[in-house]
Automatic annotation (TrEMBL):
Its cofactor is [4Fe-4S] cluster. It comes from Rhodococcus koreensis. CDD domains: ENDO3c. InterPro entries: DNA_glycosylase, HhH-GPD_domain, HhH_base_excis_C, HhH_motif, MIG/MutY. Residues 37-189 form the HhH-GPD domain. GO terms for biological process: base-excision repair; mismatch repair. This is Adenine DNA glycosylase. Keywords: 4Fe-4S, DNA damage, DNA repair, Glycosidase, Hydrolase, Iron, Iron-sulfur, Metal-binding. It is an enzyme of class 3 (hydrolase). PANTHER family: ADENINE DNA GLYCOSYLASE. Its EC number is 3.2.2.31. It catalyses: Hydrolyzes free adenine bases from 7,8-dihydro-8-oxoguanine:adenine mismatched double-stranded DNA, leaving an apurinic site.
Length: 300
């Protein structure tokens, strides 16, 4: 079953959320920043920080001229701070090798630091209007239901998922780009994972609805917990370093997680290995770019 592109695009043009990165005057660099931030992070948390970043770093060279620590501090509590480091690295490459301009073709985008298959196609599509399939979790869910009649998509497969969406794209570039945005919007706001609102769906035909909305028969993907995980401990350690203007003593970091010193040590060592934290020659700890660049040894 195909997806009615006209119905979907008409709905999108009337109902799309007013997200800041969709407004006039937004550059490909701004869209790239939004796509990196939105990975595994809700729109409501990203929007205010993204707007601050656009003002502070309107072009890649401005970010490249800032330190890694500056970028990590500005990243705040968005989570998965390695994304910030990779974006900083990407900014340096864009400034030095691409004339401060984000490339428009997927293959060149894929060659940039931290840019994967989804992000490259999202930038090519949403910033430059390229006719390329853009597949995220929301898109996979809509295609699974509307086209294949399944309650949930199966395991991700880049080849299969891209082929699925490619066959649905309208022929013209402009409509294809809008269709891609609309497909994603539908999955994010109507055809949601837990509570799809089929009464609000603009699609006149849906294989899943036609089949009586059969229940998902496979194992549901478990929602990843946060409380008590190494991720939570890493976040607490990073918060101490972000709030300090100078390297800190180990005792300050030890105080953030007293319940399980072994877990705390493991989390700190992982931050050192990931390059998010550095240890100075005199044993203090600092954000990336503010330490001594020493190779970390296992903490004892």
């Amino acid at each position: 079953m195909a997806v009615d592109s006209s119905a979907l695009i008409n709905w999108y043009e009337a109902q799309a959320r007013d997200l800041p990165w969709r407004r006039d005057g937004v550059t490909a660099w701004h869209i790239l920043m939004s796509e990196i931030m939105l990975q595994q992070t809700p729109v409501v948390r990203v929007a205010p920080i993204w707007e601050e970043w656009v003002q502070r770093w309107p072009v890649p060279s401005r970010m490249a001229a800032s330190s890694q620590a500056d970028v990590l501090r500005a990243w705040g509590k968005l989570g998965y701070p390695r994304r910030a480091l990779r974006l900083h690295e990407c900014a340096g490459v864009l400034a030095s090798e691409h004339g401060d301009v984000v490339p428009s073709d997927v293959d060149t985008l894929l060659g940039l630091p931290g840019i994967g298959a989804y992000t490259a196609r999202a930038v090519a599509c949403f910033a430059y209007g390229q006719r390329v399939p853009v597949v995220d979790t929301n898109v996979r869910r809509v295609v699974a239901r509307a086209v294949h009649g399944s309650a949930e998509p199966g395991n991700p497969s880049t080849t299969r998922d891209l082929a699925d969406v490619s066959t649905l794209l309208p022929r013209t570039r402009a409509r294809a780009a809008t269709f891609s945005a609309a497909l994603m919007e539908l999955g994010a706001t109507v055809c949601t994972a837990r509570s799809p609102e089929c009464s609000r769906c603009p699609l006149p035909n849906c294989a899943w609805v036609d089949a009586g909305r059969p229940a998902h028969t496979g194992e549901r993907r478990k929602v990843q917990k946060f409380a008590g995980t190494d991720r939570q401990v890493r976040g607490k350690l990073m918060a101490v370093l972000r709030e300090s203007t100078a390297p800190v003593e180990r005792v300050l970091l030890d105080q953030v997680w007293l319940d399980d010193p072994g877990q705390r040590d493991r989390a700190l060592h992982s931050l050192l290995i990931d390059g998010l934290v550095e240890q100075t020659d005199d044993g203090l700890f600092a954000l990336a770019g503010e330490g001594s660049q020493l190779t970390p040894e296992p903490l004892r």
